[in-house]
Design a protein that fits this description.
By secondary structure, this protein is of the alpha/beta class. It is built from 7 helices and 5 strands, in the order H-H-E-H-E-H-E-H-E-H-E-H.
Length: 165
């Protein structure tokens, strides 16, 4: 069984030294400062998508926007990822997942103490009225039909993240 490392003290020391060294540097622009802050404390978005091409594309889009992207192809990968105890701020999820579909998985996640507070956005090619209704029933914040407009996706994510802070 793999040993879990407790890194809180190390993280605090690294952050303290980084801040100290940054304070010794010439004044930087606000955008440079925000960029450094994002790298140290990224907003992590969990992408649950079984299609590898879609999953990797979403990861690239999110990282280009300065977000951290955690990915899982299915419920089995999701359990391993959740066991790592990473901070998650938003969930993007496909509906047509193997073994446990997106609606079932969302319902289980919304029963969890920490995960139920996270905004959830479904990304799916399924676009029947009953799909939208099921999404509302499981507490989804939004439902975006595939193929999706990248700018719309970025806008929805930015708005949901902004509403969390």
């Amino acid at each position: 069984m793999a040993k879990k490392f407790i890194t809180a003290d190390l993280i605090k020391r690294i952050e303290k030294l980084t801040k100290q060294r940054m304070s010794e540097q010439p004044v930087v622009s606000l955008n440079e400062f925000r960029g450094a802050q994002k790298k140290m404390h990224p907003v992590n978005i969990l992408v649950i998508e079984d299609d590898e091409t879609q999953r990797l594309s979403l990861k690239r889009i999110l990282e280009a926007e300065g977000y951290g992207a955690l990915t899982a192809a299915d419920s089995a990968e999701l359990t391993a990822l959740l066991d790592e105890e990473k901070d998650i701020h938003l969930i993007l999820m496909d509906i047509g997942l193997p073994w446990i579909n997106g609606f079932e998985l969302a319902a289980m996640m919304k029963e969890h103490q920490d995960l139920k507070k996270l905004p959830l956005v479904f990304l799916s090619a399924q676009a029947e009225p009953e799909d939208y209704e099921k999404a509302r029933e499981v507490g989804a914040a939004d439902y975006i039909k595939k193929p999706f407009d990248i700018e719309k996706l970025k806008s929805v994510i930015a708005e949901l993240i902004k509403n969390q802070t």
